[in-house]
Write a structure and sequence with these properties.
alpha+beta; Pnp Oxidase, Chain A; 8 strands
């Protein structure tokens, strides 16, 4: 990381930023260009292991690319503001970038993944197993093998 003064080194702080993100962007290997898609997501943390869950349809470009190469990158950020400083204009933000392998989940882990997504958005009392659209959804997980955090706060 070029700007070491902006690096977040504390794991708990990185997780906190991740949990406060509204959207993650999933970066995949496209056929001619990289492919980036925004995601709704859930986060499960066990010790220092971070598992992200997201969902999608049973077919589509994202599904095709993941079948070809499941190695991926995610990025999440919290934009605070742009403001003038004595050196010019700067953006105040917090961000995370993670890497890992995306895998479809099966069985009971589908419920775990979907529940983590609705929990992340504040609907913890909603029971995903009762959702009518549940059978048509494909759920994926990404265990992060690496994650970094960065911020530019006042």
């Amino acid at each position: 990381m070029l700007r070491k003064d902006r690096e977040i080194t504390d794991f708990k702080e990185i997780v906190d930023v991740l949990k406060r993100c509204d959207t993650l962007r999933l970066g995949l290997f496209g056929s001619d260009y990289p492919y980036v898609v925004p995601l709704s997501f859930g986060v499960c943390v066990e010790g220092t292991k971070i598992t992200l869950y997201f969902h999608g349809g049973s077919r589509g470009y994202k599904t095709e690319l993941l079948a070809k190469n499941p190695q991926a990158c995610v990025e999440g950020d919290i934009f605070i503001k742009v403001e003038p400083t004595e050196h010019g204009i700067t953006t105040r933000y917090e961000s995370v970038i993670g890497f890992g392998k995306v895998e479809p989940v099966t069985g009971a882990e589908i419920i775990t993944g979907l529940q983590s997504i609705v929990d992340h958005y504040g609907f913890s009392t909603y029971q995903v197993k009762n959702c009518q659209g549940f059978p048509a959804v494909r759920v994926y997980k990404m265990v992060l093998t690496q994650i970094t955090g960065k911020h530019n706060l006042k």
